[in-house]
## 1
Amino acid sequence: MIPPPKRASESQTEMVQVVLPNDANPLGYILGGTVMHLIDIAGAIASHRHTRTLLVTAAVDDLQFLHSIKVGDLIILKARVTCVFTTSLEVQVDVFSEETLTGRRRLTSRAYLTFVAIDKSGARVPVAPLIVETDEERRICEEAHARRAQRLRKKLENPSVGSP
Ligand SMILES: CC(C)(COP(=O)(O)OP(=O)(O)OC[C@H]1O[C@@H](n2cnc3c(N)ncnc32)[C@H](O)[C@@H]1OP(=O)(O)O)[C@@H](O)C(=O)NCCC(=O)NCCS
């Protein structure tokens, strides 16, 4: 059964935390792996809020770190469902740094993640459709369709697909 449709605003998620020394490399900048972990969490929360099902991460697109985030800064993650397919959905996660003393905010990464909805036995389940109302939302979803096609092409090109 297909669940009732939802708006992206219903699952939009913002996470904020201060970068502590334990998150950082010897230069005092947050570790890339820590940022990736937080991206996965923020993306998963937005996806769970949309689907209310169990999920697995199927793909994380190429990720760039445009600026470093130093100890004492805030790291802010904003996650939003961009498009829903059948049993999968795409989420965009934007990562910002914010200097605590000045409030200066910079976009440091943008990630696109794909999650697949599953039930307790691991079977894929349909995801609630996304209500797309504005031209902007339509454009975002069209772009997500193009990224999905590219991801699935890449998956087929992967030599490990199909091997034991
Ligand atoms: C992700 C996974 C469920 C896909 O399984 P699969 O049998 O290859 O995929 P299916 O053919 O059943 O497709 C299921 C959906 O996933 C999508 N999908 C599968 N692989 C994908 C990929 N690499 N990128 C984007 N979407 C993908 C399909 O398009 C389909 O979406 P749709 O129903 O909306 O059209 C499976 O590979 C898996 O369990 N991987 C491990 C996940 C994991 O451990 N993640 C980390 C911890 S959560």
## 2
Amino acid sequence: MQRLFLLGAISALLGLTNLFAADAPPAIIALKAARLFDGKSKTLLPNGVVLIQGNTIAAAGSNVAIPDKAQIIDLGDATLSPGFMDAHTHVTFDFSGNYNELRLRMLDENVSQLALEMIPNARVTLEAGFTSVRDLGSSFPNSHDFPDVSLRNAINAGVIPGPRMLVATHGIGATGGHFDGTNGFRDMLFGAEPDWSNGIADGPDAIRKAVRFEVKNGADVIKAAVSGGVLSLADEVDVPQLTSAEMVALVDESHRLRKKVAVHCHGDEAAREAINAGVDSIEHGSFLKSDTLQLMKQKGTYLTPTLMASEWVMAKIGQYPPAIQAKGKAATEARSEMFRNALKIGVKISFGTDAAVFPHGMNAKEFVLMTGLGMKPIDALLSATSVDAELFGVASKLGTLEKGKLADVIAMRGDPTADITATERVFFVMKDGKIVKNDVKP
Ligand SMILES: [Zn+2]
């Protein structure tokens, strides 16, 4: 009883302190750097200043007047930018090592162990300047856990450092398709066929049930595989894996629940059906033909090219089983022409990497691949900020350096429009007004 009283007294006291704290406005931080990319303009501004109060941007621009009481952080010959976003990650996994060893580990390790191992993935992503990500699919064979939801919640609660996450829970797909975790294993090795509760659904009603189940369990975005994939053993990379009716059900149910739909798709036929069904983004898109890209432009569908994924797989292609080698080569050969066509046609290109296929924290290497295929550096930067913010549905809060937006601000050495690899040298990261990395040493 006495203890309870004491607790009550302490919390009353804390409440009182908070009350006093609320009277004083939070201190102002002024970030200064030689240049500023505001996330919306086609050029960088000189003499960049961002004023931050609490977790919000109070002002941003060129030569903004700095209030006397502000704490000034001068970042020197650097470029300030909105925090980068990555529309396609799997923070809960790391597939970058040897394929067969990883497959065994998935069977050996408990989900709780895998969950601990994902903590550094979140940290290095944030420290690389990626303050927001979509996590597009997280499931382990024969497990019903939702590790991505737990990771997102732990980050939001301040328990571990990491980016803001929009999570997809289990990828939805067909029996034997790219997301069927038992694909490539002996029949009934896991004692049961996966079902809608693992994301595996056949027929429009089962697809709706899978969407509802995932939203119930914390999904922010819905991910589905409408065509085959590279890193799954028993399917062809470009075949359609959902019917048109299934895709219509997928999009309708997701949009009713106000969730966007991202679909894994390499094949052209499946992409056309998915775009017509109204999906929000096509992930990968390796074999998309010009007509299909035109349809995307017309419908406003985003393309998330994930060039880093194919780059990484191709760099060590000899380590994969023969079936995957053939699929990886075919998809990579097709994707460069597809990307150039998408640029020419003016398809909205979102920045997304498929981090997990390569080690987390290397996300910014996507910039040099995009510009290498003809994208202007400034457009690549826009893609990783305001374009992604729009795709994520968070453009009113994030994606640009403007008064009233949440204070996710990064700085990189040099000028990324002159040398895009500057994006790989992020040395200052602020998320939600809090400095999470500040390495001002030259
Ligand atoms: Zn992926």
